[in-house]
Design brief:
Blueprint lengths: L2 E5 L3 H13 L3 E5 L2 H10 L4 E5 L7 H8 L7 E5 L3 H8 L6 E4 L4 H19 L11 E3 L2 E4 L4 E4 L2 E3 L3 H11 L8 H9 L8 H14 L9 E4 L3 E4 L3
Parallel strand pairs: 1-2, 1-3, 3-4, 4-5
Antiparallel strand pairs: 6-7, 7-8, 8-9, 10-11
Helix pairs in contact: 1-5, 2-3, 6-7, 6-8, 7-8
Length: 232
């Protein structure tokens, strides 16, 4: 049975989320502050996390940022303020989705189900499969099928769109793509944002892959034109 961690300080809302998820076949666990929720997420096994923004102890923003250093599972942030949406998109938190209170319990279940399905689909690389073709450039290795990235032989944790953006650029080396083109090719009709999302994800990738000298950047900015993965 798939297990969901609900990190929410409002006990009535947490119990409502729990009841609807359990009615749809999920097992749930509750945490009522950010510190306890973060500890549970790191020490126990879950298939997705519902994470409130405003929490005692540690905010949902900080919890999400910390968990993304080591966890790939879907994180859906829950907020009571529409102004928080831009922060969720723009702070480089790595959240997969968000819900604004009040929300439909049916929508909650649908979002959780969709993100778990996509995550499982992308993670379903069986042991013993034929070795996949690697994309290697200097000290960076990308494994397209198993969706893993290694820098200096150490794994770099990327969320889905970060990986897809890096892979798209690396599979088309030295070609310059505008932000609009990258947004269309990587996000497509799924997106909740706009082309500015590309810049946010490029900055996240540069942080995670190391801010080398300009001539050694994996992803190069071509001013006035866009970005490219440079290999020459």
């Amino acid at each position: 049975m798939e297990r969901i961690l609900i990190i929410e300080d409002d006990e009535l809302i947490a119990e409502l989320e729990r009841d609807y998820l359990e009615a749809n076949g999920y097992e749930t666990d509750l945490a009522f502050d950010g510190i306890i929720g973060e500890k549970k997420a790191k020490t126990e096994k879950y298939d997705a996390i519902l994470l409130d923004v405003m929490l005692p102890g540690k905010t949902g923003f900080d919890v999400c940022r910390e968990l993304r250093k080591s966890l790939r599972l879907p994180i859906i942030m829950v907020t009571a303020k529409k102004e928080d949406i831009d922060k969720i998109r723009g702070l480089g938190l790595g959240a997969d989705d968000y819900l604004v209170k009040p929300f439909s319990p049916t929508e909650l279940v649908a979002r959780v189900k969709s993100h778990i399905y996509i995550h499982n689909l992308l993670s379903s690389t069986e042991e013993g499969e034929q070795q996949e073709t690697e994309i290697t450039y200097r000290n960076l290795t990308i494994l397209p099928k198993s969706r893993r990235v290694y820098l200096d032989k150490k794994e770099v944790i990327l969320v889905n769109k970060e990986f897809e953006l890096l892979l798209f650029l690396a599979e088309n080396p030295n070609l310059v793509f505008s932000k609009d083109t990258l947004f269309d090719r990587v996000w497509g009709m799924e997106s909740l944002g706009d082309a500015a999302t590309v810049t946010v994800h490029i900055n996240r990738l540069r942080d995670k892959l190391g801010k080398n000298e300009s001539k050694n950047q994996f992803i190069e900015t071509v001013w006035g034109a866009g970005y490219r993965f440079r290999i020459d």
